[in-house]
Design goal:
The complex is a heterodimer. By secondary structure, chain A is α+β, with helices and mostly antiparallel strands. Chain A is 29% helix and 27% strand. Chain A folds into four domains: 66 residues, Phenylalanyl-tRNA Synthetase, Chain B, domain 1; 192 residues, Phenylalanyl-trna Synthetase, Chain B, domain 3 (Phenylalanyl-tRNA Synthetase, Chain B, domain 3, 3-Layer(bba) Sandwich), CATH 3.50.40.10; 68 residues, 2-Layer Sandwich (Phenylalanyl-tRNA Synthetase, Chain B, domain 1), CATH 3.30.56; 190 residues, Bira Bifunctional Protein, Domain 2 (BirA Bifunctional Protein, domain 2, 2-Layer Sandwich). In chain A, α4 runs antiparallel to α7 and α9 packs across α10. Chain A is elongated and about 95 Å long. Chain B is α+β, with helices and mostly antiparallel strands. Chain B folds into three domains: 85 residues; 124 residues, Arc Repressor Mutant, subunit A; 253 residues, BirA Bifunctional Protein, domain 2, CATH 3.30.930.10. Chain B contains 19 helices and 15 strands. In chain B, the strands form four sheets. A seven-stranded mixed sheet of chain B has the order 7-10-11-15-14-13-12, with helices on both faces. A four-stranded mixed sheet of chain B has the order 4-1-6-5. In chain B, β12 and β13 form a beta hairpin. Classes of the chains: A alpha+beta, B alpha+beta. At the A-B interface, α8, α10, α11, β20 and β22 of A face α12, β7, β10, α16 and β12 of B.
Chain lengths: 564, 512
C-alpha cells in the first residue's frame, strides 16, 4: 500500500488550516487513509486504496478532505475534451510510430507561473515515484519525467532509436554514453533497463533541435531533465503502454500542480497512428465516461432508502458532481479519478460521503444452520482419543526446509511440493508428512522429561498426478513417542485402541523400502485393500540426522481415507 | 511455638516417643530397641535433625573389615595359596596349567598365588619346570590370613581389634571399592551419638498429648479390607504442605483449543465450515476475486509459486470463461472490466494459497441461498518471518449470502463478531479497500485488554466476483484477525510461538 511523506508546511498550507493528529485520524478515513506517523514536521500517511492513485499525494488527500468539508474545489478548467480543445500555443509532442513496439504512448503538458519550492519539488518527485511504482507497475506501464520547459524547443519528439547509436549525458553522470551503455553503467539503467532491453529500438525523448529530454522509462538528461528548486516553467511527460493510464496520471499531476499554484499549459500530442481518442489529443485531456447507478440499487446495497437529493449531496462531499434523474444517479467522474468500474464503486462513494456512522447496524435475518466440516468433527474425535492415550497435541508450520522434510527423513524429493521463489531455504518445501514436524520437536526437546508422547492432526500436501493440480492436500494424524524403551508394540497397541473406538477394522501389511523406519520394524495400516497409514520404529540414521538419541516410534494416518 | 506433630513420619514419631532428654541415642540402640533397619534409622535421624529435634552429641570414625563373597568362599575352601600348597603336598610336583585345571582356578590366580608362595619360600619351580612344595607347612602371613578369614565369619572386624601383623596382612586382602577380587571390604563407619533437644522434648510431649503413636496406618490395603483389620487401625493424617509430584498429562494444544472455540462460536452463529487444498491456481487465488492479473499483490514477491507442477491441468468451466470475460470487458456483471487481455496460461499457474478469501470465492460455486459459511484456514505469504509474521498462518474468513443482505447487515454482522468473538466494548467502522469488495469496511474494536485494534476487513463482494461465479444475490465477505487475541489468550507475544515445536513449552502453556 502506498505511503507518502509530506511536510506540515505543504500539507496544512494546501489545506488552509492546521489540524491535530487526533483530528487527522478522525478525518483521514474518508480518503481511506491512516496517519502512520507525525514527527519533526513530517506527516506520514498510508493510503489503503490501491485503485485511487489521485490520493497518493498531499494535494490529492487535501482535495478529498476539502470536498468532504463542503469547501468549493478549484475549477480545473484546463482539460480538453473530444468536443473542445484548448489552444496549445505551439507546444506539441510528436509520438512517432518507431516507438510503437517498445512503448507506444507518450503524453505531456507544461506549467508556468509558480516557482517550485523545495517542499513542492519533493512532493512532485514523490508523486512521480508513487504513480510510476504502484500505478505504473514499477515504470513498466507508466514512467513520468519532469523537464525545464525553458530549455525546450517544441515540438518534442518521442520515438524509438537505435540504442547503440544514440547517446547523451544522463542525470548523475558527467559524460555522454549510449542508451545501451546506460543499461549497465547507470544505476537507474540497472534498475529499469530490463523493461526495454529486449527491444531493437529504445524509447527516446528529444526536442526539435535534438536537445535530449530523456531515455524513458529509465533516466532524464542532465540538462533539460535536471529540474531544480526555483524553476518555474516545467514540462511533464508520461510514457507507457496504455493511453488511459497515461492520461489519468497526467490529469492527477496537473490537478496537483494547479492546487500548488501553477498555471497548466496544454500540449498537443500528435500520434502517427489513430488512437482511441483520435490522432491528436490535447493534454490534460478528460476521457472519463459518466457512471450511473439506479437509486434502488443504492438502497439495496446500503440498506438505507436515501432520497436522490441525499445521494447527490453525499457524492458532492466526495468531489463528484451528480444528478438524480428518473430514479437513477448520473455522476460525472472527477478528472483525477478513473476507478468507477461498476455502479457499486459509485455506491461506495455515496456510503463514505453520507458518513459510515449514519448507517445503523442491523442483524442479518436469514436463518441458517451452523455446521462444522466432517473433517473437523472427525479430527476432534481423534484428538480426544489421542489425549486420552496420554499424548500432547502439537501445532506446526506447514513450510520447512529441504533438510527437514527430505534429507533428514531420507524421503524422496519427487513427492514434495517445492516453492520456486522461496524467501529463505528454511521455508522452501510444503510438508509432505507430519513425522518430520514431530521429529523437529524431538530435536529441540531433549531436556523435556521422557517419555515424549506428542501428536498433531493437521494438513499435509504432496504431489499426486491423479489430481488436476498434480498435488493433494490431506488431513492427517501424526503421532510420535520416544523413551529409553519404546518400540513397535507400543504403536500397535495405540492403533488397536484407535481402531476399536473408531469402529474401524484394519490389518497390517509389510512396509518395504521406507528409509524413515527400521526395516522389518514398521508396517502399513490397511483398511480393506487400502493403505491408510504407516508406522514403525524411526531408523537410527534418521534419529541421528535429527540429533536425537532416544528410541522413537512414529505413525501417520490419512484421516480422510479413514473417514470414508 | 505450635508444633505440627501431625506431619511427623511414623519413624520419627516412634523414635521421639521412645527416647528421653539426656539419653544417648545411637543407631545400634534404635535398631535393637525399635527394630528399625539401618536405613530407617538414618532417615529418622536426618529428618529429626533437620527439624531441630535431635542434636549431634559426638561423632567418631571407625574402620571395619567385612568378609566379601570371595572371602566367605576362601574361608570355606582355602585361599588359592593354601589350596596350591595342600595339593602339591598331597600329590607331589605339578605344572602350573595342571594346577589350574585341578583346582579350577584361573591361570592368573594360580600365577599370582604361586608368586606369593614362592616369595615366602614355601614352594619353588623345579628343574622339570613343575611346582613343588618345599616347606613343611604354611606359616607367617598365610596363617594370619587364614585366621582373619575365620574370624571374619563372626562379623565385621574392628581395625582396633587387630594386631600389627594382622593389620599388615589385612591391608593386602581388603579394599574400599571394587571388592569382587578381594576377600575383605574396608568400611569406614561414623558413629554418631545423638541427643534429644529441648524442641525435641516438646515435640515428644505434643505427640503424647495428641496420642499419636506412630503405628497409624499409612495406606489402606485390600488385605485390610478382606481381613477386617482396618477396624482396629487408625489412619495417619497427611500433612497439607507437602510438595506434589509432577504429572505430564495428555493434553490439547491451547492454540488449537482457541481456534476450536472460534469455530464453535461461528457455528453457533449459523455458519457452516469450509476447507480446501493448500495448493491453488492463480485463477482461484486472484482471478476469481477480480484482482487484475497485473495487480501489485499478485507479484512474485507476495505469493509463493509452486515449482512443479507449475500449472494446473485446467480450470473448471463455466467459471474460467466467465471470470476471464469479466476481467476483459465485464461480461454480464454490469462492470466495464479491467480492459486487458486475460492470460489463460497465467491463470493456471500454481501457488500456495495466500488468502482465505480464495475459499470464500470457491464456496460461491456451491453455496445455498440464504447461506453463511466460514473457514479457519492456513495461508502462505512471502514475508520475512519474525515476531509478527509467520511463514504460514491461519486466516478466519467467511461469507453471508442472501437476497436482503446489505451494508447495514454487514455492520450488524461485524458488531456481532466484535461482541461474541472479541468481547469488545466498543466498535468503530471505517471505509476500507479490498480488490474484491465494494463497498469495503474495516472494523476496529475496543478490546477489553488490548485496547483499540483492527478486528478485520469486510465488504460486499463485487458483482464481478459473485456473478462470474454464478451467484446473483449480494454476498457479504469478511475476514477476522484473531491472532493478536489468540496470543493474549495464551499469554504470548510472538506469533512464532503459536506453532512452537518445543515440547516443554507446549506442555506447560496455559490458557488465560
Amino acid at each position: 500500500m502506498p505511503k507518502i511523506d509530506t511536510t506540515d508546511t505543504l500539507f496544512f498550507g494546501l489545506l488552509g488550516r492546521t489540524m491535530t493528529d487526533d483530528e487527522l485520524e478522525q478525518i483521514l478515513p474518508v480518503a481511506k487513509a491512516e496517519l502512520d506517523g507525525h514527527e519533526d514536521g513530517i506527516l506520514k500517511i498510508e493510503l489503503n486504496d490501491t485503485n485511487r492513485p489521485d490520493l497518493w499525494s498531499s494535494a490529492g488527500v487535501v482535495r478529498q478532505l476539502k470536498s468532504y468539508w463542503g469547501l468549493e474545489a478549484p475549477l480545473y478548467d484546463f482539460f480538453s475534451t473530444r468536443e473542445e480543445e484548448f489552444e496549445s500555443g505551439g507546444r506539441t509532442l510528436h509520438v512517432e510510430q518507431s516507438a510503437k513496439d517498445v512503448r507506444p504512448y507518450s503524453v505531456g503538458f507544461a506549467t508556468r507561473g509558480h516557482k517550485v519550492s523545495e517542499d513542492e519539488l519533493e512532493a512532485l518527485i514523490q508523486s512521480q515515484e508513487k504513480l510510476c511504482h504502484n500505478f505504473g507497475r514499477k515504470r513498466r506501464t507508466i514512467a513520468i519525467g519532469l523537464y525545464r520547459s525553458d530549455l525546450i524547443t517544441y515540438p518534442v519528439h518521442y520515438r524509438g532509436v537505435d540504442p547503440d547509436k544514440t547517446s547523451f549525458v544522463p542525470l548523475g553522470l558527467d559524460r555522454e554514453i549510449s542508451l545501451r551503455e546506460i543499461l549497465t553503467e547507470h544505476p537507474k539503467g540497472r534498475e529499469y533497463g530490463h523493461i526495454v532491453a529486449d527491444s531493437p529500438l529504445f524509447p527516446f525523448l528529444c526536442d526539435d533541435k535534438g536537445g535530449v529530454l530523456s531515455f524513458p522509462p529509465v533516466i532524464n538528461s542532465d540538462r533539460i531533465g535536471a529540474v531544480e528548486v526555483g524553476d518555474e516553467n516545467l514540462f511533464l511527460e508520461f510514457s507507457g503502454m496504455d493511453l488511459k493510464d497515461l492520461l489519468l496520471a497526467a490529469a492527477i499531476m496537473a490537478c496537483d500542480m494547479a492546487d500548488m499554484g501553477w498555471e497548466i499549459l496544454p500540449v498537443k500530442v500528435i500520434f502517427d497512428e489513430e488512437t482511441e481518442f483520435g490522432r491528436e489529443i490535447t493534454v490534460p485531456y478528460y476521457f472519463q465516461e459518466p457512471i450511473s447507478a439506479p437509486l434502488d440499487q443504492v438502497h439495496k446495497t446500503l440498506g438505507e432508502a436515501l432520497d436522490g437529493e441525499s445521494v447527490v449531496a453525499a457524492l458532492r462531499r466526495m468531489g463528484i458532481y451528480a444528478i438524480c434523474d428518473d430514479d437513477t444517479i448520473w455522476a460525472t467522474v472527477p478528472e483525477w479519478r478513473n476507478d468507477f468500474l461498476h455502479a457499486v464503486d459509485l455506491i461506495e462513494d455515496v456510503m463514505i460521503g453520507h458518513g459510515l456512522g449514519n448507517f445503523e447496524p442491523e442483524m442479518p435475518r436469514d436463518f441458517t444452520v451452523g455446521r462444522l466440516s466432517k473433517a473437523e468433527e472427525f479430527a476432534r474425535k481423534i484428538k480426544d482419543l489421542m489425549v486420552g492415550l496420554g499424548f500432547q497435541e502439537m501445532m506446526y508450520n506447514y513450510l520447512g526446509s529441504r533438510r527437514e522434510y527430505i534429507d533428514n527423513m531420507r524421503y524422496p524429493e519427487q513427492k514434495c511440493i517445492i516453492i520456486s521463489n522461496p524467501m529463505s531455504e528454511n521455508y522452501e518445501v510444503v510438508r509432505p508428512s507430519i513425522i518430520p514436524s514431530l521429529l523437529e520437536s524431538e530435536m529441540m526437546s531433549a531436556h523435556s522429561p521422557y517419555p515424549h508422547k506428542i501428536f498433531e492432526v493437521g494438513k499435509i500436501a504432496y504431489r499426486d498426478d491423479r489430481d488436476l493440480s498434480g498435488t493433494v492436500t490431506r488431513n492427517a494424524l501424526g503421532f510420535l513417542a520416544s523413551d529409553r524403551l519404546m518400540g513397535f508394540n507400543d504403536v500397535t497397541s495405540i492403533i488397536a485402541t484407535l481402531s476399536y473406538f473408531l469402529n474401524i477394522e484394519y490389518s497390517l501389511a509389510a512396509l518395504e523400502g521406507d528409509l524413515r523406519f527400521i526395516e522389518g520394524r514398521c508396517a502399513r495400516i490397511m483398511v480393506g485393500e487400502r493403505e491408510v497409514g504407516v508406522f514403525g520404529e524411526i531408523h537410527p540414521q534418521v534419529l541421528e540426522n535429527w540429533g536425537s538419541v532416544m528410541p522413537t516410534i512414529a505413525c501417520e494416518i490419512d484421516l480422510d481415507l479413514l473417514r470414508e | 511455638m505450635d508444633i505440627d506433630v501431625k506431619n511427623l513420619h511414623p519413624l520419627e514419631v516412634r523414635l521421639l516417643r521412645h527416647v528421653a532428654l539426656g539419653e544417648d541415642i545411637t543407631v545400634e540402640r534404635i535398631m535393637a530397641e525399635l527394630g528399625y533397619i539401618l536405613g530407617q534409622c538414618n532417615q529418622a535421624f536426618s529428618w529429626l535433625h533437620a527439624k531441630g529435634y535431635l542434636s549431634e552429641k559426638s561423632r567418631q570414625t571407625r574402620t571395619l573389615f567385612e568378609l566379601t563373597e570371595l572371602g566367605r568362599e576362601q574361608q570355606q575352601n582355602g585361599s588359592p595359596a593354601h589350596r596350591i600348597f595342600s595339593l602339591l603336598k598331597a600329590e607331589g610336583p605339578k605344572s602350573l596349567p595342571a594346577l589350574s585345571d585341578a583346582l579350577a582356578l584361573e591361570r592368573s590366580e594360580i600365577g599370582s598365588a604361586f608368586g606369593q608362595l614362592s616369595k615366602a619360600g614355601a614352594v619353588r619351580m623345579n628343574s622339570d619346570n613343575n611346582a613343588e612344595a618345599i616347606a613343611d607347612a604354611l606359616g607367617g602371613e598365610f596363617a594370619l590370613v587364614k585366621t582373619l578369614l575365620d574370624r571374619g565369619v563372626g562379623g565385621a572386624l574392628l581395625e582396633s581389634s587387630l594386631s600389627d601383623g594382622e593389620k599388615a596382612a589385612m591391608a593386602k586382602i581388603s579394599k574400599k571399592r571394587g571388592t569382587a577380587n578381594s576377600p575383605f571390604k574396608t568400611i569406614e563407619r561414623e558413629d554418631v551419638i545423638w541427643a534429644l533437644t529441648e524442641a525435641g522434648g516438646r515435640a515428644k510431649e505434643a505427640l503424647l498429648a495428641a496420642n499419636i503413636r506412630g503405628d497409624e496406618v499409612g495406606q489402606l490395603t485390600v488385605e485390610m479390607m478382606k481381613d477386617g483389620s482396618w477396624r482396629d487401625a487408625t489412619f495417619r493424617p497427611y500433612g497439607l504442605g507437602a510438595p506434589t509430584a509432577r504429572i505430564i498429562p495428555g493434553r490439547r494444544n491451547p492454540y488449537a483449543n482457541y481456534l476450536a472455540w472460534v469455530k464453535d462460536k461461528l457455528t453457533a452463529l449459523g455458519f457452516e465450515e469450509f476447507d480446501g487444498p493448500l495448493v491453488e491456481s492463480e485463477f482461484w487465488n486472484g482471478d476469481a476475486l477480480f484482482m487484475p492479473q497485473f495487480h501489485s499483490a499478485r507479484d512474485i514477491h507476495d505469493v509463493y509459486y509452486v515449482k512443479e507442477p507449475r500449472h494446473r491441468a485446467s480450470i473448471e468451466e463455466p467459471w474460467l470463461s466467465q471470470v476471464a470475460q469479466t476481467h476483459e470487458d465485464g461480461w454480464k456483471t454490469g462492470s466495464r472490466g479491467w480492459r486487458y487481455t486475460f492470460d489463460h496460461e497465467f491463470t493456471l499457474r500454481q501457488v500456495l494459497r495466500s488468502q482465505g478469501t480464495v475459499l470464500s470465492a470457491k464456496q460461491l460455486t456451491n453455496a445455498k441461498i440464504p447461506g453463511k459459511y466460514f473457514g479457519v484456514v492456513r495461508c502462505f505469504r512471502y514475508d520475512q518471518v519474525d515476531a509478527t509474521h509467520g511463514a504460514d498462518f491461519y486466516q478466519t474468513e467467511g461469507i453471508v449470502l442472501g437476497e436482503d443482505v446489505n451494508l447495514k447487515t454487514l455492520l450488524g454482522l461485524l458488531k456481532m463478531f466484535a461482541e461474541e468473538i472479541a468481547g469488545a466494548e466498543d466498535v468503530k467502522y471505517v471505509p476500507g479497500y479490498f480488490p474484491f469488495t465494494e463497498p469495503s469496511i474495516e472494523v476496529h474494536i475496543k478490546h477489553p485488554i488490548l485496547g483499540w485494534m483492527e478486528l478485520g476487513g469486510s465488504g460486499i463482494f463485487r458483482p464481478e466476483v459473485t456473478k462470474a461465479l454464478g451467484v446473483d444475490v449480494p454476498v457479504l465477505a469478511w475476514g477476522l484477525g484473531i491472532d493478536r487475541m489468540a496470543l493474549m489468550h495464551l499469554g504470548l507475544s510472538d506469533l512464532r510461538d503459536l506453532f512452537s515445536a518445543n515440547i516443554e513449552a507446549v506442555r506447560t502453556r496455559r490458557e488465560n
